[in-house]
Design a protein that fits this description.
The complex is a heterodimer of chains A (about 160) and B (about 800). With about 160 residues, chain A is of the alpha+beta class. Chain A contains 5 helices and 5 strands; from the N terminus they run ββαβββαααα. Chain A has 2 domains: about 80 residues, Beta-grasp domain (Ubiquitin-like (UB roll)), CATH 3.10.20.30; about 80 residues, [2Fe-2S]-binding domain (DNA polymerase, domain 1, Orthogonal Bundle), CATH 1.10.150. Classes of the chains: A alpha+beta (about 160), B alpha+beta (about 800). At the A-B interface, helix 1, helix 2, helix 3, helix 4 and helix 5 of A face helix 2, helix 5 and helix 18 of B.
Chain lengths: ~160, ~800
């Protein structure tokens, strides 16, 4: 298995280029080659969502995407979602509403929630619960995660209404 | 230095001390992907380790051929038991006084057991090499049932052949580990013989797994030049790991540094010492390079510590009026292939003897028999203090079964048997001294909050409608009143590997009035950096925002026994308060000197010492800290530091009252949780927001265990639930919203009255969910069915009761 492919990715707005075996998983390319350690490995079978990233505008579980499949893609991880000086509203909201405990699921959770709110800016509680069902949290029981996401949506919508 | 805030109310708010819902300081890094978990640790030249594991539940190893693996480009080493034997590291001691193979020594005893350890330049080469290791097995008869094991001629642990006694006394059979007996056998028998009513019920508390989202792992780095070994790992008890590593390796303890970085949930899974940790250390010593081992999810579920697997039989006696007169309990405890429970040494079945629960039961008796089988080792406490969930499940099911026998309301049966407020401190029939409680108040509050009478009326109507054929849905009302026993524990009776279960806190106040405190515990999501700073803020008058809390580095933190069994707040929290009081005592002397009055003439007020009767004359803690380092004070050393090692005089006994209301579709077996009300009393509340978060989480793990989560084996010893496809972890879709409530009954012996809360919701939640399912079928003759109540099993209960026509 020594045949390597030339891989180009755009990760969080930065161009990345490297040689990799086609069987290499995207999560390991991100974590071990590019030192982007926000996305985590929780299950290897795409159940837990700790590895969630946005790939070409869609939420994907990067533990079940080969880096070869991602060749040429635009990828956003938690590291590309906000900066220390300008946090994403969800990053603020998860802290405000105690939407995290051990923090291991949090990067995937917020990455997914950000995409969910893009897809549906005014979700109901049921829509949030359904839309987040691909991300497992072992600590919070989800109640405060759901609260954080709904609060973030309200905040964004209120700000938009005020602007209009 | 901050501007002085003069208004007293503002000063209190500025402190962010105990009782406020302070936002967590941990969250900034976690929400931005900047947590530092073991798998994020990357050291120069680091190699990756991976295990060859047994596909068999029980087999003899005839040969291991590593040559093809070693020939693969990028493979550095392949370790087998033969390589570890000269170092005497092919076996290791367990926390339960047994020993466990690090790598298979002649035979394998469970599927997934570690057989060889491959070390390679990256994870892909390591995985390829694992496939190239040729192991020749000869399969042996497999035993997965502990009852069968005790009858079988097959000797599972040949290494123990002929040993009629183990770490916990006599062994009755070659597959028997120990018998633990507590209480008054004859007295209980006598009471049962003459009782109005005696009910016996067997129940199986199934095997499950803590399954934190982050699996277990370690990175070991042996620096041969300086003779120092550094080990990063998922350790709930880093100091214990250092001591064990020293004893095993012969490296002096001062040359070992153990670091628990951020931990992605523990729930008991990360208390024990695993072969992977040992192998990464040995591999680093052998190769001279850092070696990382991180298990995948399947390895986690198959090999690192499981929980429960208790086959319990309860026998309870009562008067016709429902007053309980005695309890007898016997347990067959399946410990798997090695006894790797993580209990205090003197308690081989943990605190199972809290099984008299919240009730004033005059006489009781308990025996537990530990048994070997061809299953993974462990027996850890998954989100509960040692075996407390098993104990509470037993008594809360026995109460329900007794209520059925007496044709009584189960809420009323509980009420008439509760230990009364005035009986505390209360000594139970099985020897525990409950510190404080007010069960009747909590129970009444809970029943009123849910309109219990209304619920029962609705349920009766539903049963009638079901019988008339108007609905296919039944309604279950689950009740639970639990008492936890946490905060292990007093050194006089609690130790692990001989080390007393105290804990510690060391505080340094900096000259400008901020501080750092280090503790012997380690957070796995509980928010220690937030809450311990709150305790200190209230004790020493420095804002929590100006206090750094640090844990998990054995080179800097004082020795402690770690975080599990809800012990951090009861033990390390107490140490924190006591160390804070030492700081305050010295600060008082400094303040008195600066104010030119006698020590007794100043008093502490929020963030300062004031002259009694002259509140305008004061010194703030900031001023005092500065003076401690910059002013020569006669009779006082410079500096402002303190350390406390706290040996708790007793355990703490949090309690709670839970009610679950569930609608069950009789034809699909699908439960719909309509309401879950949880009232918790954890004594003094440090941070209500964090307490509530702990309760949501613990209840959800309880929901998982009660309604579907299990580690199941087939008769060949194959693990049937090795991935998250089969092992149930609830998602946001399955989990309800919880209503939380509280009463406050402080612990009388704890410096701040706090009792610990992280595990209460799990302990109370499991029987509450289970009781709800079983209660739905009570009107149709159900007495008891075993967990997990997944859809199929609920459907089968309905079917067995003839409800499918």
């Amino acid at each position: 298995m020594t045949n390597k492919m030339h891989i180009q990715l755009n990760v969080n707005g930065e161009a990345q280029e490297f040689l990799a075996e086609p069987r290499e998983l995207l999560i390991y390319a991100l974590r071990e080659r590019l030192n982007i350690t926000g996305p985590h490995v929780g299950c290897d079978t795409s159940h837990c969502g700790a590895c969630t990233v946005t790939l070409n505008g869609k939420s994907v579980k990067s533990c079940t995407v080969f880096v070869a499949q991602a060749n040429g893609a635009d990828i956003t991880t938690i590291e590309g979602i906000g900066t220390p000086d300008a946090l994403h509203v969800l990053q603020e909201s998860f802290r405000e509403h105690h939407g995290l405990q051990c923090g291991f699921c949090t990067p995937g959770m917020i990455t997914r929630a950000a995409k969910l709110l893009e897809e549906n800016p005014t979700p109901t509680e049921e829509e949030v619960r359904f839309g987040m069902a691909g991300n497992i949290c072992r600590c919070t029981g989800y109640q405060n995660i759901v609260k954080s996401i709904l609060a973030a949506a309200s905040e964004v919508n209120a700000a938009q209404e005020a602007a209009e | 230095m901050k501007d002085e805030v003069e208004n007293r109310e503002d000063r209190v708010a500025n402190l962010k001390g105990m009782g406020c819902s302070r936002k967590r300081v941990e969250d900034a890094r976690f929400t931005q992907g900047k947590g530092n978990y073991v798998d994020d640790v990357k050291l120069p030249g680091m190699l990756l380790g991976d295990f060859v594991r047994s596909p068999y539940g029980h087999a003899r190893i005839k040969s291991i051929d590593t040559s093809a693996a070693l020939a693969l480009d990028g493979v550095i080493a392949v370790l087998t038991a033969e390589d570890l034997a000269p170092l005497n590291l092919h076996w290791m001691p367990t926390l339960a006084g047994d020993k466990q193979m690090v790598l298979a020594d002649g035979k394998v005893l469970f599927q997934g057991q570690e057989v060889a350890f491959v070390v390679a330049r990256d994870r892909y080469v390591a995985a390829d090499a694992v496939e190239l290791v040729e192991v020749d097995y000869e399969d042996l008869p497999v035993i997965v049932n502990p009852h069968e094991s005790l009858q079988s001629d097959v000797v599972l642990r040949e290494d123990l052949a002929g040993q009629t006694s183990g770490a916990h006394g006599p062994r009755k059979h070659h597959n028997h580990i120990f018998t633990w007996e507590v209480g008054d056998k004859d007295g209980t028998e006598q009471v049962m013989d003459s009782a109005d009513v005696v009910v016996e019920q067997s129940m199986y508390y199934h095997r499950t797994h803590p399954c934190p989202l982050e699996t277990c792992g370690s990175v070991a780095s042996m620096d041969k030049v300086n003779g120092k070994l550094t080990v990063y790992g998922t350790f709930q008890a880093p100091h214990v790991v250092r001591t064990v590593a020293s004893l095993l390796s012969g490296i002096e303890e001062h040359n070992i540094r153990v670091i628990s970085p951020d931990i992605g949930g523990g729930f008991g899974n990360k208390v024990g010492v695993y072969p992977g940790y040992v192998c990464s250390i040995v591999a680093s010593i052998v190769t001279g390079k850092p070696v990382k081992w991180v298990e995948d999810r399947m390895e986690n579920l198959m090999s690192t510590a499981f929980a429960r697997d208790y086959h319990m039989t309860g026998k309870i006696s009562a008067t016709k009026a429902g007053k309980i007169t005695g309890l007898d309990c016997h347990v067959i405890a399946d410990h798997g292939a090695f006894d790797a429970c993580a209990d205090p040494t003197k308690f081989p079945a943990g605190f199972m003897n809290i099984c008299t629960g919240s009730y004033d039961i005059p006489v009781a008796h308990l025996t537990v028999d530990g048994v070997y089988t061809n299953k993974a080792p462990g027996g850890v406490s998954y989100r509960c203090s040692f075996r407390v969930t098993e104990a509470v499940y037993l008594i809360e099911r026995m109460i329900e079964v007794l209520a059925i026998e007496l044709n009584m309301d189960a809420a009323e049966l509980r009420r008439i048997n509760f230990i009364k407020k005035e009986q505390f401190p209360y000594t139970s029939a099985l020897g525990w001294e409950y510190d404080s409680g007010d069960y009747h108040t909590a129970w009444d509050k809970a029943l009123e909050a849910v309109d219990y009478a209304g619920l029962r009326a609705e349920q009766a109507e539903r049963v009638a409608a079901f019988k008339r054929g108007e609905t296919r849905s039944l309604m279950g009302i689950g009740l639970t009143f639990f008492t936890e026993i946490v905060g292990a524990g007093p050194v006089k009776n609690c130790d692990i590997l001989g080390m007393g279960m105290f804990d510690s806190c060391e505080i340094r106040i900096h000259p400008t009035g901020s501080a750092i405190a280090r503790l012997g515990t380690i957070s796995q999501g509980q928010g220690h950096a937030t809450t311990f700073a709150q305790i200190l803020a209230s004790e020493i008058g420095i804002s929590a925002d100006s206090i750094t809390i640090e844990e998990g580095d054995t080179d800097t933190a004082p020795y402690g026994l770690g975080t599990y069994g809800s012990r951090s707040t009861p033990v390390a929290g107490a140490a924190t308060a006591m160390a804070g009081r030492k700081i305050r005592a010295k600060a008082q002397m400094i303040a008195a000197y600066l104010l030119e009055v006698h020590d007794d003439d100043v008093e502490f007020d929020v963030d300062r010492f004031v002259v009694k009767g002259a509140p305008e004359r004061f010194k703030t803690m900031t001023e005092i800290a500065y003076a401690a380092y910059n002013q020569a004070i006669p009779g006082l050393e410079p500096g402002l530091e303190a350390v406390s090692y706290y040996d708790p005089p007793n355990m703490t006994y949090p309690f709670g009252a839970y009610v679950c209301v569930m609608d069950i579709d009789v034809d699909t077996g699908v439960p719909d949780i309509r309401k879950f009300y949880a009232l918790d009393d954890c004594g003094t509340r440090i941070n209500p927001m964090i307490i509530e978060g702990q309760i949501h989480g613990g209840l959800t793990e309880a929901l998982a265990v009660a309604l579907g989560q299990e580690i199941a084996y087939d008769d060949m010893g194959n693990v049937k639930t090795g991935t998250l496809m089969d092992f149930f972890l609830p998602t946001a879709w399955e989990v309800p919203n919880y209503e939380t409530d509280h009463t406050v009954t402080p612990s009388p012996h704890h410096p701040i009255g706090a009792k610990g809360v992280g595990e209460s919701p799990h302990v109370g939640g499991v029987p509450c969910f289970s009781n709800a399912v079983q209660d739905a079928f009570r009107a149709f003759g159900n007495r008891h069915t075993n967990m997990p109540h997944d859809h199929w099993r609920i459907w089968k209960t309905a079917n067995d009761l003839g409800l499918h026509g």
